[in-house]
Structure formats: C-alpha cells, structure tokens
Specification:
The structure is a single chain. With 180 residues, the protein is mostly helical. Helix content is 70%, strand content 3%. It has five helices and two strands. Strand 1 (118-120) and strand 2 form a beta hairpin. Helix 1 packs antiparallel against helix 2 (44-71). The chain binds protoporphyrin IX containing FE (2 copies). One protoporphyrin IX containing FE binds next to helix 1, helix 3, helix 4 and helix 5.
Length: 180
C-alpha cells in the first residue's frame, strides 16, 4: 500500500456488491429448494422464473465483483490473526467466488439441456448454453444441487467466522464490511 493511504475498510462499491450478492444468494437457496421439491403450488412457474432471473443477475454481479476484486486489493486483516486463519479466510473467499460462478452456470446449462427457457425478469430469454439432452440436464442439475449444498455450507462457515470476529475477537472485520 502507498504510504499515507488508509485502508481501514472495504470501499463502498465492494460493500454494496458483497451485501447485494449475499442477500440474493440467501433468497436463492430456499427458493431453489422450494422449486426442486415442487412446493410452490400455483406459484411454481413464477418461482421458477424468479429463480432463473435472480440467478442470472447473481452471475452478472459476481463477474463485476470478481473483476473489481482482482483489480482492488481488500484491506489487510488485523496483524494478530494467525497464519492458518488467514489461509482459511482466503481459501473460503476464493471458494465462495468459484461457487458463485459455477452455481448459476450449472443452473443455466442444466435448464438449457432440459430444454426450458431461461427468462431474465420477463425482458428477454438468455441463449441456451448447451443443446437439448435430458440425461445431461439431469446430471447438470444434480451438480447444481451439490454446488448449492456446498455454497450453503461454506456461507454458514463464513457467517460463523464473521460473528466470531465481531463477538469473540471483538475486532473490526465485520464492521469494515458493514460501515467501511
Ligand atoms: C447463485 C445462483 C443460484 C443458486 C444459489 C441456486 C440454488 C439452487 C438450489 C439450492 C436448488 C435446489 C436443488 C435441489 O434440492 O435439487 C436449485 C434448483 C434449481 N435451480 Fe438453481 N440456483 C442458482 C441459479 C440458478 C440459475 C441461473 C438457474 C437457471 C437458469 C437455476 C435453475 C434451477 C433449476 C431448474 C432448479 C430445479 C432443479 C430440479 O428441479 O431438480 N438456478 N437451485
Ligand atoms: C451467501 C452469502 C455470502 C456470500 C456468498 C459472501 C461472500 C463473501 C466473499 C467472496 C468475501 C470476500 C471478499 C474479498 O474478496 O475480500 C466476503 C467477505 C466478507 N463477508 Fe461475506 N458473503 C456472504 C454473506 C455474509 C454474511 C451474512 C456476513 C455477515 C454476517 C458476511 C460477512 C463478511 C465479512 C465481514 C467479510 C470481510 C472479511 C474480511 O474483511 O476479510 N458475509 N464475503
């Protein structure tokens, strides 16, 4: 970092992108479970479209976010965090980014192979990623489910770590993502 530059927290853009993705992902996990278990009743069709549209939006947001992240270094962690915890944080964050890209791509590809349309908020349909193949669709949606489970697990670990920082270590790690 340049001398005199003060990186106490995440920039406003980094924070907006983080909380927007977090909120959307937290909506998408239960929404996915509802549609996969046909628990949507008369709303099933609407919920499918919402799941696909929000999923595509997440993909777009995460591409922007990754581009931003690769060109802007996040603020360093407090000095007294042990190396293993730094490594765990780093690994979790990159795994989350990877899953955030993989998850919507698998959903999109699996839906294309089904074949079913991938609407984007009623504005237009996204082009199919693969040609129609029901067996392939089953496989891709199976992996969509597995990455969904992995995402839910990692996100829980991530939230637990954030709460640990705030309430046990009482450092600024959660605050710098909230207020900068
Ligand atoms: C980050 C974004 C996404 C998340 C977190 C997510 C999460 C989930 C989850 C947890 C399920 C339930 C899986 C199961 O229990 O079988 C699911 C199902 C599903 N998702 Fe997604 N999804 C995302 C994006 C997408 C996108 C972009 C599409 C399509 C364009 C899509 C299409 C589907 C479909 C068709 C199902 C139902 C699969 C079935 O009936 O077995 N998802 N999603
Ligand atoms: C499913 C939802 C979530 C996803 C996908 C997610 C993803 C991420 C990612 C990828 C980073 C790394 C940012 C970087 O590149 O430096 C990050 C940072 C962070 N997240 Fe989340 N997050 C989610 C939910 C939450 C929630 C609910 C909390 C709080 C309870 C939280 C607290 C934080 C904090 C404090 C950081 C900054 C860590 C640091 O300063 O090193 N996240 N998140």
């Amino acid at each position: 970092m340049e001398p005199g530059q003060h990186a106490a927290g995440y920039t406003q853009l980094a924070r907006v992108l983080h909380w927007l993705t977090a909120a959307l992902v937290l909506v998408m996990l239960p929404l996915g479970l509802v549609i996969a278990n046909e628990a949507g009743g008369r709303l099933q069709g609407v919920l499918y479209n919402a799941h696909k549209s929000i999923g595509a939006l997440i993909l777009l947001l995460v591409v922007v976010r990754l581009a931003y992240r690769l060109t802007h270094r996040p603020p360093p962690l407090p000095d007294d965090i042990p190396p293993l915890q730094r490594l765990a944080a780093e690994a979790t964050h990159w795994a989350l980014y990877a899953l955030l890209i993989l998850q919507p791509l698998l959903g999109w590809a699996g839906t294309s192979a089904y074949p079913a349309p991938v609407p984007f908020f009623g504005l237009f349909d996204l082009p199919p990623l693969v040609t129609a193949d029901r067996a392939l669709s089953d496989q891709l949606l199976h992996w969509h489910r597995m990455t969904g489970l992995a995402l839910a697990g990692l996100a829980s670990l991530h939230v637990a770590a954030a709460l640990y920082h705030h309430f046990v270590r009482r450092d600024r790690v959660l605050l710098r993502m909230l207020t900068g």
